[in-house]
Design goal:
Chain lengths: 137, 222, 300
């Protein structure tokens, strides 16, 4: 089993979530992995290049957290965010990287806890993928 | 404008392997507008290539630059210094831009990072469609401003083929039949009689079929 | 000399004519043509298609083979694969080899054939082709003005899709084909009799049926699957859902094949007596053996 610490980038919409809440909720996880949080005025503001740059500078996984469906302050920002995330996943596939390293997490009714649960599953997925690539290399 | 789309990363990696210092050179004109080869796309492709290079052990060193127009010597000159410092140029210009760069820097390999697709327009956000084939002898006045040479898959000049449907072309379900559009448009502007004339065979010598073309404006040659 | 084909003579004599379609194969011998020839009794002329679904033996060669066997061919030319130079050259050759009927079409786009990666030509369109053949015959000159030596006595045909909408556009186009020189019109396969009646009435109103002989197309499907595939892939085919339902509920393979023939026989009964219909064209879909069956069942 690969227990290497991972570099996780968290881009998030600042209207629905503040960095402090995320940090607090990450709790113990910060001991195992490195988290970099980047707050955005709107998730739709995100350009592809920011996401790619995260990978270029060593991210093992990038999560993009958007506000709830239908609650974007700028009406369609979270819809755009989804399209951007899909475009990055396509580029990762072209490059030969696991596209699951890019994940869009849309907040729901479950509050920050369900966001953290989803993040845990994301980390687990990347850990397994990295372990596989270690074994095969 | 000229519409293009980027080549896929594996094709670019295959093209560039064996080179180390790579200049990804964007163009600020048509391909910027169609989101294929402007400053933003230069950064995206460069970043993707860096990740791909690290992954596959090619060790590319990639720099980025975008000039206003790759098909214009005035702007090409601005890239001279940067090009001199690199082993190869990956041009994100259209096919004309790539060739203009290659002609100016004859000692340097210049590769195309885009597939130049067509002359077209932005139909709606994120959708471009082809409108002109640059045949060199425009017939649009006869067809209500809709080009049957470009927009009819069979270049029919005398009406639709038997595969025409009111809502689609025989060849592609997602494209309208140009002849249905021509019919509606001519009817709408009261010029349907134009369709009743038999259009004689076209002289294609002004098109690419007549050989590679050039344009000379003597009044501008001083 | 205007034209001297048997098909032309029969039409001018007011006979109800019968034509059928032969699809050459991707073969380097003439065995498929042989089978066709033997199943074509009562047929005035046989169309030889020009690579409708991808490369096969050329329609010119196929036409010559039929002619040599005593069957009168209708040499089909599409504008997809050959430019005006090649088309006129082939036409001269055809005349020289004794071919007397030519059918002018644009042809399926290559995207709908087995060679979708091919380029295309489309130098001229089907109406321009009709006009070119007439000029060659009536004025004895090629498109570039070169004088033709000898006679070029071609009987000129064109195709029409009765179901292409809107009707106004359909008729404008049909009229242009006749004005350009088409003397007979073979239609796409008819399954929708009412739609066909509407079209021929519109054609009649424009005086088209007096100037050109309309030869109504029929096509016996072998199976419901074939009918569905044709409907979905080829926009020039108009196949109502009822036809596919009938084929589907007919039963096993053989029953479906028979049903395909029955459908044709019914269509023939309905359209044979219509004003302006001068003959029947049996499209074979490459199964020439079914032609004789249709002829017998329909009493043609």
């Amino acid at each position: 089993m690969n227990n290497q610490p991972l570099n996780i980038y968290l881009f998030h919409c600042t209207n629905s979530l503040d960095t402090e809440t995320i940090r607090r909720s990450l709790g113990e996880r910060e001991k195992d992995h490195t988290f970099k949080t980047i707050s955005l005025p709107c998730s739709g503001k995100l350009e592809l290049i920011y996401l790619l740059k995260a990978f270029e500078s060593g991210a093992d996984g990038v999560a993009l957290v958007t506000c709830k469906h239908g609650e974007c302050r700028y009406l369609e920002g979270n819809l755009r965010a989804q399209k951007r995330a899909e475009a990055v996943r396509a580029i990762l596939e072209e490059i030969g990287l696991d596209k699951e390293r890019m994940k869009l997490i849309q907040q729901g009714d479950g509050g920050v806890q369900s966001l953290i649960d989803e993040l845990d599953r994301f980390i687990e997925r990347i850990r397994n993928a990295t372990a596989e690539s270690f074994e095969s290399s | 404008m000229i519409v293009a789309e980027r080549k896929k990363i594996p094709e670019l990696v295959e093209m560039l392997k064996g080179h180390k210092k790579i200049l990804v050179l964007g163009c600020g004109t048509c391909v910027t507008v169609c989101l294929a080869g402007g400053e933003r796309e230069v950064s995206i492709i460069s970043s993707a290539l860096r990740i791909a290079s690290r992954n596959s052990g090619y060790d590319f060193e990639i720099d980025e630059m975008t000039i206003e127009r790759q098909c214009d010597n005035v702007f090409i000159e601005q890239a001279a210094e940067a090009i001199a410092k690199h082993d190869v140029v990956l041009s994100l210009g259209c096919g004309a831009g790539v060739q203009a760069i290659a002609e100016r820097y004859s000692e340097k390999p210049v590769y195309a990072g885009l597939n130049t697709s067509f002359l077209g327009v932005l139909e709606e956000r994120g959708v471009w469609t082809e409108k002109c084939s640059a045949c060199g002898s425009c017939v649009l006045h006869k067809y209500g401003g809709i080009c049957p040479i470009t927009r009819c898959a069979k270049h029919m000049l005398n009406g639709p083929c038997g595969g025409s449907r009111e809502d689609r072309c025989e060849v592609r379900p997602d494209r309208p039949c140009a002849w249905q559009l021509i019919y509606r448009r001519l009817k709408g502007i009261g010029e349907l009689d134009r369709l009743k004339n038999i259009e004689a065979v076209k002289d294609w010598s002004t098109s690419l079929d007549g050989g590679v073309r050039m344009l000379i404006r003597e009044d501008h040659r001083i | 000399m205007k034209h001297n084909s048997n098909l032309a003579k029969r039409i001018e004599a007011g006979d109800f004519v019968l034509t059928a379609e032969f699809l050459p194969r991707a073969s380097a011998d003439n065995s498929s043509a042989g089978a066709t020839i033997s199943s074509m009794s009562n047929v005035t002329a046989v169309n030889v298609s020009d690579n409708p679904y991808g490369p096969v033996m050329s329609s010119l060669a196929g036409s010559v083979i039929l002619r040599n066997a005593g069957v009168e061919p209708v040499y089909q030319i599409i504008t997809r694969d050959r430019n005006r130079i090649a088309i006129q050259s082939d036409l001269l050759g055809a005349a020289c080899l004794g071919i007397r009927n030519v059918l002018c079409l644009s042809g399926h786009h290559q995207a709908l054939t087995g060679s979708p990666d091919s380029s295309n030509v489309y130098d001229i369109d089907s109406i321009q082709l009709i006009a070119a053949v007439r000029q060659m015959r009536d004025q004895g000159i090629l498109l570039n003005g070169t004088k033709i030596e000898g006679d070029f006595p071609m009987f000129i045909g064109a195709v029409a899709n009765p179901f292409m909408k809107p009707m106004e556009l359909n008729v404008i186009r049909l009229k242009k084909k006749v004005e350009a020189g088409a003397e007979f019109i073979q239609t796409q396969a008819i399954f929708d009799v009412e739609g066909f009646k509407e079209w021929i009435e519109a054609a009649q109103k424009e005086g088209i049926t007096e100037k050109a002989a309309i030869i109504a197309g029929i096509l016996p499907f072998r199976s419901a699957v074939e009918a569905e595939n044709k409907r979905d892939k080829y926009m020039d085919m108009s196949i109502p859902d009822q036809v596919i339902e009938r084929m589907n509920s007919a039963g096993d393979e053989e029953a479906q094949r028979k049903e395909g023939i029955s459908i044709c026989v019914e269509v023939v009964k309905e359209i044979k007596g219509l004003d302006g219909v001068k003959g029947i064209h049996i499209l074979s879909g490459g199964r020439e053996s079914s032609i004789s069956e249709v002829i017998a069942e329909a009493g043609l």
